[in-house]
Amino acid sequence: MRPIQKSNKLADVCYDIRGPVLEKSRQMEEEGHKITKLNIGNLAVFGFDPPDEIVRDMMLNLQNAAGYTDSKGMFAPRKAVMHYTQGKSIAGVTIDDIYLGNGASELIVMSMNALLNSGDEVLVPAPDYPLWTAAVSLSGGNPVHYVCDEQNEWYPDIDDMRRKITPQTKAIVVINPNNPTGALYPVEVLLQIVELARQHQLIIFADEIYDKVLYDEAEHVSIASLADDVLFITMNGLSKNYRSCGYRSGWMVVSGEKRHAKDYIEGLNMLASMRLCANAPGQFAIQTALGGYQSIQDLVGPGGRLLKQRDLAHKLLTDIPGVTCVKPKAALYMFPRLDPAIYPIADDQQFAYELLAEAKVLIVQGTGFNWIAPDHFRVVFLPNSDDLTEAMGRIARFLEGYRKRHSRG
Fold first, then answer.
1. Are strands 364-365 and 377-380 parallel, antiparallel or unpaired?
2. Tens digit of each residue's pLDDT (9 = 90 or more) over 353-391
3. Which of 182, 257, 303, 366 could form a disulfide with 371 if both were Cys (CB 3.0 to 4.6 A apart)?
4. How far apart are CA 176 and CA 164, in angstroms?
């Protein structure tokens, strides 16, 4: 029989958050091993429940959720998103500028499919949430990674970004708050990115899915609120702020300079229609979530569980010899660095395999986020304090053994 092979379009597509190391983890679980999974921001499995009012409203509306909705989404949740954008000071957004999706993930892929031709370039951060890189590649484009500077709070390196703009560049992706680093970008940095987009007539794609998961009284500024002469596509949803990952309820907002983007917007409308609509139960959750009690504040504020676990994880990691980590100001992740002089890692996926096999802890290697060197990894700090302490202890013992095995003395 002739082998059936995957499409060439998938040659450069990678999503290591659920990649080969996870498959090894599943095999080990089938063999009876208990694995601590620090690989994915899946809040529900760590006891972070969605607000009760969201669950109740979805259940009450299930009877009305069996039919197709408008391809962009139902009116009431889109109106709620419109009010949300007004609260973020994003000007000029109408109901027609809002698309609901099966999570922000679907809309990320859709936005790239509608934009890119073969050879078009998109600036994507390194490290990034790898779906962005994958979506660019899958859509026929070339992801070009600009460096975020670990020595400067993981902020984007504007000079590096500027150097990498070419006549083929169509857009800049900004992930703020950032996954995987937990960085939160100040207005000064955002304004520099806007100016680059203005000078080179680029679209800004803003991934703001963690815009309420903020620590130490930090404030998030939507980049789309800073200009009206640049085209912005802003992504957000319920999965993180409202602990509703599985409801697959997200939205995309088109704002700014829309007059010259009519053809692109027509492409977005076409793709939105082709998928018929986003899931209706998830749409019913949006209005209640955005208009209800913002319980995320109880988790990230003083005494909150997420804040305490962030502080605990950061201390336990940075107490390990040769491990440094910029303390995240937002999101659910840490992206620690392993000093190459102490941990001479040539292949960080192999490193993740070894950690899994020996310590029974699942992490994601840094290159899985398109980082440039095998010297980082990402962990979530979602397990409760006891489980987090146990997991970090196992990582510390593994790294102690790794140092001894690779000692140059």
1. antiparallel
2. 999 999 999 999 999 999 999 999 999 999 999 999 999
3. 366
4. 20
